[in-house]
């Protein structure tokens, strides 16, 4: 962080009386230092966009090794185009630095941005411990006029009911003397910088009108897209959760339609594709399950907060969580039709991450598929060319270049990485292949049966 800029810090934005043009200038010239709490897959790209915009950002992370790498200009996040070069450039120019010292960052900054993981407890309730820890850290150094921005997904009501009173109680700065706004990240791994800079409209909503105004001013400089202001922070929080819940329910519909097609003997994928030619129809694609750190969790951000019955959300979760079992059952039946018992069979699972091209295994459907096949007695091989470590999976790791040497009874493609395009599928004889994502386009042969989820 540029110490000269810190000493020349301007009047804070929240409650500012100077002209808006001067507030905007102070932000762009780095006279309003920014601290970003959480430097993971979404946090680091966000911090760099703030840094390239203002030239005065300090990133906070609890991992010493991450902070050390960043301060040497090295990027610990893989798979984000431009990010390594941008980190190096920003560190070299002094626009960005990192620390594990939360109080130092909180005391230095006027704008505090929180982007930490929100996971689920074993009771399927939102675990806000990381968010609250960041808020406590901010409280240790916050000043009147500072602005807090929450970017990580949270249950509706979190900013108003938890962040504001927590910071006020632990800082001694009264409610109404600092701003809090919820401005959700709308980014995907592999394109984070592009998304942050303006791929989609930016949602902002504050706990009061002044918090909203400040958030709109800030993001008006970060993004090239529109700013959509919500009436309050709780509505803005609901927007992000609704986006994920929509996808979960829609995927569940597609998965249920795929099973109906399987039962009745028609190609559900073809029916879905044709149905989607109507502009009012947008059925998603069936698959082996829903993974990642977002969609499988967001429904619980609502169900845990409300006394209203939520049968649709609960059913969608049950359908999507049940797809790995459907895959295993289908493979078992198809093997039996060829006179092969899954117990003692030789099986290959391709793709262990939850999404193609993204080295993330949280809630991946590959895990229960592998575990179930192992439990049923199969000799299971696993292959994922973008993961360095597959020890969390129960199968035997095999390199992509070696799979053609295996004698197999069945193959399950869970996640179709681009690297799998190099596979010579003609080398697989007397094998059942389950295409989990409708990406193989392989014809049946007398010695090979290909089943596509949602197909025939």
What would you say this structure looks like, in words?
The chain is of the alpha/beta class and 456 residues long. The protein folds into three domains: 3-231, Rossmann fold (3-Layer(aba) Sandwich), CATH 3.40.50.720; 241-320, N-(1-d-carboxylethyl)-l-norvaline Dehydrogenase, domain 2 (Orthogonal Bundle), CATH 1.10.1040.10; 322-452, 3-Layer(aba) Sandwich (Rossmann fold), CATH 3.40.50.720. Helices cover 39% and strands 14% of the residues. It has helices at 3-7, 20-28, 43-54, 64-71, 83-92, 102-108, 129-139, 158-171, 192-199, 209-222, 233-264, 268-275, 298-303, 311-321, 323-337, 366-375, and strands spanning 34-37, 57-60, 96-99, 111-114, 119-120, 126-127, 147-150, 179-182, 202-206, 227-229, 346-350, 379-383, 396-397, 410-413, 431-435, 448-452. The strands form three sheets. The protein has an eight-stranded mixed sheet with strand order 3-2-1-4-7-8-9-10, sandwiched between helices. The protein has a six-stranded parallel sheet with strand order 13-12-11-14-15-16, covered by helices on one side. Helix 7 (129-139) runs parallel beside helix 8, helix 11 crosses helix 14 (311-321) and helix 15 packs across helix 16. The model is unreliable at 1-7 (pLDDT under 50).
């Amino acid at each position: 962080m540029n110490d000269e800029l810190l000493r020349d810090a301007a009047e804070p934005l929240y409650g500012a009386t100077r002209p808006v043009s001067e507030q905007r200038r102070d932000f762009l010239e780095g006279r309003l230092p920014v601290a970003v709490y959480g430097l993971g897959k979404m946090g680091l790209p966000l911090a760099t966009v703030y840094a390239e915009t203002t030239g005065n950002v300090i990133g906070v992370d609890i991992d010493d090794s991450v902070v050390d790498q960043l301060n040497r200009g090295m990027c610990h996040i893989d798979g984000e185009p431009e990010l390594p070069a941008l980190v190096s450039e920003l560190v070299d120019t002094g626009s960005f630095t990192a620390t594990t010292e939360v109080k130092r960052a909180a005391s230095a900054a006027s704008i505090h941005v929180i982007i930490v993981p929100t996971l689920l407890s074993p009771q399927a309730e939102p675990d806000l411990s990381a968010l609250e820890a960041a808020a406590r850290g901010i409280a240790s150094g916050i000043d009147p006029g500072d602005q807090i921005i929450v970017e990580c997904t949270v249950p509706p009501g979190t900013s108003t009911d938890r962040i504001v009173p927590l910071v006020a109680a632990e800082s001694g700065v009264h409610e109404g003397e600092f701003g809090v706004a919820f401005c959700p990240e709308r980014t995907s791994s592999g394109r984070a910088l592009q998304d942050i800079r303006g791929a989609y409209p930016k949602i902002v909503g504050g706990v009061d009108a002044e918090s909203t105004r400040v958030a709109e001013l800030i993001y008006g400089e970060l993004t090239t897209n529109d700013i959509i202001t919500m009436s309050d922070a709780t509505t803005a929080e609901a927007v992000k959760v609704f986006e994920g819940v929509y996808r979960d329910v829609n995927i569940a519909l597609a998965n249920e339609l795929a099973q109906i097609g399987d039962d009745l003997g028609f190609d559900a994928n073809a029916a879905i594709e044709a149905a989607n030619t109507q502009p009012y129809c947008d059925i998603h694609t069936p698959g082996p399950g829903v993974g990642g750190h977002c969609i499988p969790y967001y429904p619980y951000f609502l169900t845990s907060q409300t006394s209203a019955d939520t049968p649709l959300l609960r059913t969608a979760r049950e359908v999507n969580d049940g797809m790995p079992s459907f895959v295993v059952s289908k493979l078992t039946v198809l093997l039996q039709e060829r006179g092969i018992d899954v117990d003692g069979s030789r099986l290959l699972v391709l793709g262990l991450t939850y999404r193609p091209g993204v080295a993330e295994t949280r809630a991946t459907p590959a895990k229960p598929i592998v575990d179930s096949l192992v439990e049923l007695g199969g000799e299971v091989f696993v292959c994922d060319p973008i993961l360095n470590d597959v020890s969390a999976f129960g199968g035997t790791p095999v390199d992509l270049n070696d799979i053609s040497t295996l004698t197999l009874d069945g193959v399950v493609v869970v996640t179709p990485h681009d690297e799998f395009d190099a596979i010579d599928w003609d080398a697989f004889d007397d094998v059942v292949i389950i295409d989990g994502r409708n990406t193989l386009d392989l014809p049946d042969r007398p010695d090979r049966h290909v089943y596509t989820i949602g197909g025939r």
